[in-house]
Specification:
The chain is α+β, with helices and mostly antiparallel strands. It has a single domain, classed as Dimeric alpha+beta barrel (Alpha-Beta Plaits), CATH 3.30.70.1060. It is 24% helix and 36% strand. The protein has 2 helices and 6 strands.
Length: 117
């Protein structure tokens, strides 16, 4: 089954720009350990994953009454912004939750992907 993992920036972590070099190296190490653990786990594959730019670099496209409008910034004003994502193929949610413990302490949302076929 596929799962979308949304990493909300920054949970208990300071903003990336406020990290020391040592903190940045530690976060990168944790992401590398997560990738290695996924690769080593039977039935688990990282299908996609990326860090995202700051919320204020996003563009929102809204359609109302057939008219599309563009606005700068994140979809919703919030303290937490989407910082990155993974798309995982895994046997079940328990496996995903177990692997996510290797990541830095972000606030994380996990959603199953609906397979229309």
């Amino acid at each position: 089954m596929k799962y979308l993992v949304l990493l909300m920036a920054d949970g208990e972590l300071p903003a990336w720009a406020d990290h020391t070099e040592e903190q940045q190296a530690d976060v990168i190490r944790q992401f590398e350990e997560f990738g290695a653990a996924c690769a080593a786990r039977e039935g688990v594959q990282i299908l996609a994953g990326e860090a995202l730019g700051p919320g204020d670099t996003a563009t929102v496209v809204r359609t109302r009454g057939g008219v599309r409008t563009l606005t700068d910034g994140p979809f919703a004003e919030a303290v937490e912004q989407l910082g990155g994502f993974y798309l995982l193929d895994a046997p079940d949610l328990d496996v995903v939750i177990d692997l996510l413990q290797l990541l830095p302490p972000y606030d994380i949302q996990v959603s199953p992907v609906v397979d229309p076929y």
